[in-house]
């Protein structure tokens, strides 16, 4: 049997699908997955290896570790979806990947709070504002913040070692659109390599590293929410980020400061690092 | 950024991959998965739904239930791999899907044994031979046999209800290349619909049914092993098998017999069904 008949038959099976969007998606998936098979001509053993790999990716995934997201991220798929979904107007803050370590329902903190909860590192003051495209401040915008520590680990990766919810928190902008929090400077880290995606990276001769960054999700009533990072200028791996997430506009300076008055106000040692950034949201059209 | 640059960058990351076959496979996978994204233009929510679907397929998979195989089967992927891998010479037994219910290490039985282990149903005698392309009998060929009962379930789907390993067994051909075993006539059944693939079938307006069949894996020293089915002629769903596995040459008659001498020899009631089939193996080239 001509093997294209098998593909035609698989597509015909969608003829009773009432959901036109789902039919569109499944048509594309079937056509391209069949095309991969025709190009690659897998042996049955290779097919079975693919089945086992995907199964393993599923087994490594739970609420705190999402290996399929890591797979999507490391194959450039997530950034492609991001590029297609988030065609932002000029001047708006650019988006990037969510990553696998976001935890919904993190603790809320007030202006200026320290989220390090005892994680050591180089003290850092993060300040900034959230505005609209017109520059007007947005009050009561919500910032979900999370990051790895100077050792490259997120709280959820070492629950026995670190205080719960450290380097993670929810902030709200003031009426003038400002926010501030204290933390420690993040460091580059590898995506988790102890699972199947790590094996894939190793087998394909790739490194697993990401440049140092802070994660943000910023939401405000009437505005498009933004999932993004701020990358530390000068960090290793800004070139070659394993998940291709770096955008020029998201690279920011962490400046060393010795303003003892400001340090005292935020209960920080001197010197400390400071990063100031303006996030710009687009209105919901 | 032009989104094709993201794809080009993802492919560049394979430049240090020493395993040329793996590079070939990953290149095809990245190109086509990115093409799906460009065609479908998923929202972030749809992307997340895809991640969750694949994760769920992984979570439903274990040693006894392989949901990724069911997914591959129901999208026609497995039969396409089969068509590409098994281009058999004229006259050789055709192959078809393994299915998700094969269990390695089933019990060995002697010629003529009954594998029903108390599962009720229409008694059936399966006889036949295994030969080479030249018609010469192959002795000591191994037949791994498994099937669903008349209720459409495999042993592993209802471990609390059925005796362990029923309707499953390993046989060896005699010196004259013959085999025989007693069982019950299989019935059509749906692939398992309680998991994510079942949800996919329902959402796309598809039925989940397979025509009645017996599974075989036949192996013999010096010959290519064959994974196949024998389908019951006249069974419902020979047209429209949910996994597209039916091939004309694999449809066989289950004839009603009243040969009381034969029945006595195999300890079967009269009347019984009988199926006789010659499997033809290709030499390893």
Blueprint (SSEs and pairs):
Two copies of one chain form a homodimer.
Chain A: H1 3-12, H2 20-40, H3 44-59, H4 67-74, H5 77-85, E1 123-132, E2 142-147, E3 168-172, E4 178-184, E5 189-190, H6 196-203, E6 209-210, E7 213-219, E8 226-232, E9 251-252, E10 255-257, H7 260-265, E11 272-281
Parallel strand pairs in A: 1-11, 8-9
Antiparallel strand pairs in A: 1-4, 2-3, 2-7, 5-6, 7-8, 10-11
Quick summary:
2 copies of one chain form a homodimer. In chain A, the strands form 3 sheets. The first copy, chain A, has a 5-stranded mixed β-sheet, with no helix packed on it.
Report what the structure shows.
2 copies of one chain form a homodimer. The first copy, chain A, is of the alpha+beta class and 285 residues long. Chain A has 2 domains: 3-63; 77-281, Sandwich (Protocatechuate 3,4-Dioxygenase, subunit A). The first copy, chain A, has 7 helices and 11 strands. Chain A has helices at 3-12, 20-40, 44-59, 67-74, 77-85, 196-203, 260-265, and strands at residues 123-132, 142-147, 168-172, 178-184, 189-190, 209-210, 213-219, 226-232, 251-252, 255-257, 272-281. A 5-stranded mixed sheet of chain A has the order 3-2-7-8-9, with no helix packed on it. Chain A has a 4-stranded mixed sheet with strand order 4-1-11-10, with no helix packed on it. A two-stranded antiparallel ribbon of chain A has the order 5-6. In chain A, strand 7 and strand 8 (226-232) form a beta hairpin. The longest helix of chain A is centred in the N-terminal third of the chain and has 21 residues, at 20-40. The radius of gyration of chain A is 22 Å and the shape is globular. At the A-B interface, helix 1, helix 2, helix 3, helix 4 and helix 5 of A face helix 1, helix 2, helix 3, helix 4 and helix 5 of B.
């Amino acid at each position: 049997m001509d093997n294209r008949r098998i593909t035609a038959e698989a597509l015909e099976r969608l003829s009773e699908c009432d959901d036109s969007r789902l039919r569109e998606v499944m048509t594309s998936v079937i056509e391209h997955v069949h095309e991969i098979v025709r190009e690659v001509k897998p042996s049955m053993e290779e097919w079975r290896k693919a089945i086992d790999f995907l199964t393993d990716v599923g087994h490594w995934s739970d609420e705190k570790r999402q290996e399929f997201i890591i797979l999507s991220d490391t194959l450039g798929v997530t950034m492609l979806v991001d590029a297609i979904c988030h065609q932002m107007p000029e001047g708006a803050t650019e988006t990037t990947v969510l990553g696998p370590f976001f935890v919904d329902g993190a603790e809320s903190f007030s202006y200026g709070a320290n989220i390090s909860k005892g994680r050591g590192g180089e003290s850092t003051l993060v300040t900034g504002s959230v505005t609209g495209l017109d520059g007007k401040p947005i009050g009561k915008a919500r910032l979900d913040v999370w990051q790895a520590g100077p050792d490259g680990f997120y709280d959820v990766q070492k629950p026995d070692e670190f205080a719960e919810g450290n380097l993670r928190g929810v902030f709200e902008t003031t009426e003038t659109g400002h926010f501030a929090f204290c933390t420690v400077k993040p460091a580059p880290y590898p995506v988790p390599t102890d699972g199947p995606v790590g094996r894939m990276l190793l087998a394909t001769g790739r490194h697993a590293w990401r440049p140092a960054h802070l994660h943000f999700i910023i939401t405000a009533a009437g505005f498009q929410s933004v999932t993004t990072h701020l990358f530390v200028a000068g960090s290793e791996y800004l070139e070659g980020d394993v998940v291709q997430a770096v955008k020029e506009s998201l690279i920011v300076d962490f400046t060393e400061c010795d303003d003892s008055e400001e340090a005292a106000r935020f209960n920080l040692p001197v010197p400390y690092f400071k990063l100031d950034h303006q996030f710009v949201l687009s209105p919901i059209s």
